[in-house]
């Protein structure tokens, strides 16, 4: 547990600096100490080995757990500020990186959206692909749905309303009609394209019925897929994923936006991909 000891020593040194160098009141310093004590407990349970291993995803997951435990938005906001101050000090003193710099505080009366880590999403998609390898048409549909939701950030209603002609696999784009009947063209990646292609060539042909029409995704009886099925699928796959928080399909939208921003995408570009009234999602 050398790493945990190093992290504990760093927390103690940071708290001393708050009291001596920054002149915080005893009450404020005590609140920061409580927040960082929660961080130490979390890191010990999660096996975080030292300050150098702290990441933005660690802080996001911890705030989610605290939100689920009933902490007030004001307490979560102060906790986020405590973490940002701590990692800023870690970078200034050469003990670690400023990994909480982009950690956002919830607005009053709101909660933080759930964001699945990159490793968590890989686990979800790998498990779905393994299930689909059996050849079951519903499993092939399910992996195509989750791949598309994560790759494009589209809403569940937009996903269910897609037609076969909405998807251009060659250009890897999907034409979506969103809120206010506004149309936009959204790109997606190679993994999603491969899953959709397999669904179209194999799974959809098995489930297709005269009532299917041009619907891209079909239910088990051949009709157009409804949102309830996607919500049930999301609850299933997210329930087994690390971290806490909501398990609806909007989680994939939040996750897509966050991973794009983490990868260096411009906020305005992400807004255009997600569609009208979506600026609050990436923020």
Write up this protein:
This protein is mainly α and 283 residues long. It has eleven helices and three strands; from the N terminus they run αααααααβββαααα. Helix 2 (26-46) packs across helix 4 (73-92). The longest helix is centred in the first third of the chain and has 21 residues, at 26-46.
Coarse structural class? mainly alpha
How far from one another are the termini?
37 Å
Cα gyration radius (Å): 22 Å
How are helices and strands ordered from N to C?
A: HHHHHHHEEEHHHH
Low-pLDDT sequence parts: 277-283
Quote the beta fraction. under 5%
How many strands appear in the DSSP assignment?
Answer: 3
Number of helices: 11
Biggest sheet strand order reads 1-2-3
Report the biggest beta sheet as strand number plus sense, adding barrel if it closes: 3 strands, antiparallel
pLDDT average, as an integer?
83
Helix percent reads 55-70%
Using the alpha-carbon principal axes, give the shape: elongated
